[in-house]
Amino acid sequence: MSIPQNFWCTDELALHTFASLPAPDLRNCAQVSRSFNRIAVQSVLDRHEIWSAQRSAALQLADDPNDLDGLSALLLSIHVKNLAYVMFNLMKVVSLPSALKTFHKMQRLVDRMESLGTVHANWPSAAYQEQPISDKMLATACKCVEDFLDTVISKGCTTLEFSGFYAFASNYKLKKNLAFTAAEIPRAPAVEKLSIWENARGYLPSRRARAASDAPLPLLEEGSYSRKSSRFSISAPWISLTPSPKLSQVTKLATFSTHSTGVFRPPFSQWTFALLKASAVTSIKLSFKDVPDNGVESKLILDRLAEAVPDVTTIRLSSARPGLMKNVVAWLGRFQQLEVLKIEPACFSAGNDIDDLELQALARLPHMKQLRSSSSFLCAYLASCRGVDGGSLPRNLRKVIMKHKWTSSTQSAVSAFIKDVERLDNAIVEASPEPEARCLTLYIHLYFDSFPDRAEALKRIWNRLDSRILHPSSDAKVSLETPPCFHPIKSWPQLCLELMLPTTADEIQRGVVDEEVIAFCRMFPTLWKIKLCSPSSPAVSPRLALPLRRERLDKLQSVCPGLHYGWVY
């Protein structure tokens, strides 16, 4: 077999060769030429399944700063100049000194970029709560995080996402006296030239005063918090991330997301609220799972959020502490410009939580376009709409999305699910007259704990039903005489099915899960539209969805004749 003359110069061979080199040699190769730089960097990124770093880069950072991880590879690159989506995951970084070095490297990478889109920083730093941290180390940590975040904002980041960031929030406690203000913090007295004896006698008070004066003063609201002294320091100076005065000039932030309320408490809160007030934020995603049990403090956090982003149009709540949703629903009524509201079913710990909600203020929001939650919450909202002035749905409402976690495909579970859909459909019909409801679409969003098992069990139900129809027998079960299908009482609202599938968009387009998808489509014979979602590409927006291939759509139309549209994203 003859080997092409240029075989030994191909990128594929170079990738295989570089992949076997130790880290020091690979770093040296990356500095030989532009071509070697591109191949050497990609050989490292391939190990972490990062195929196009400029489009999407999920960086699993190493605890040893000298390891050649994805972040180190991108620092070597001279080609990557833009990051559309980047996730810095510090899950493996378990020591605080390593975390500080990592934040410095993250800042260097971001500072080299010409533009940024979405930046997701995951710092699950619970391990640091069990370790004693000196004031000096705490101040250094806050400074490292502050420099990184300021650099991210200065580079034009439009979407900022936080996970974790709660390690140091426990150092601060809300004071009982909320009238305490920043003006009450004592400043250091003027120190005159003293004798040796006077210096010795005033050493400790002077040291304590200097510690207090060197720390940045808290904002008015931050004066409600205090930090206890530790055995590593005589005093407890105020340590926090300091908001930059240039925030309003450089920020392009439009979307803010956090999985912890720790970023709304010291030492992060001064920076966070200053950023939100300086930015034109229109969308926020929040988790209230770890909101403090202190009712005064939780109300303080909610009030400050409402003041910081009064014109937000999209809110998504991913989780909440049990018993908090009554206060949260009342808080949501303060956002008069709200258009899209998404409340995950996990926010409601029990069914009776929804019965206690006062939804009138939420039902009066005039600009609501899209509402997504559990079937029980949506039905309660629709009932509240009938009780307010006008007695109908908001004029602009176009999407009602029922989100349901599919955990069982037994006959009883399928029947209960269909009844939930029927109740929601009836509630929509009762809450809105026909001309308005014709423009509304009911979305059924299904996600799974084990998709292959649930789909296979559902297919067995349909196979038994088909077999009974073709070969009827006298001992057929009554429960299988009626197919488990949803038949709406009206031709409106239109029906759309969304399936979150644990596979790639390419596999969906190639028909790998066709039979499984058909099993769920058979429950909705009047289906008008279908969306198949792949979680494998977190940076892809639903707005960039690809049309379902013609052969896929034709196959689905065999069980849903009215199906007109299909998308994959």
UniProtKB/TrEMBL annotation:
<protein>
    <recommendedName>
        <fullName>F-box domain-containing protein</fullName>
    </recommendedName>
</protein>
<dbReference type="InterPro" id="IPR036047">
    <property type="entry name" value="F-box-like_dom_sf"/>
</dbReference>
<dbReference type="Pfam" id="PF12937">
    <property type="entry name" value="F-box-like"/>
</dbReference>
<feature type="domain" description="F-box">
    <location>
        <begin position="11"/>
        <end position="45"/>
    </location>
</feature>
<dbReference type="InterPro" id="IPR001810">
    <property type="entry name" value="F-box_dom"/>
</dbReference>
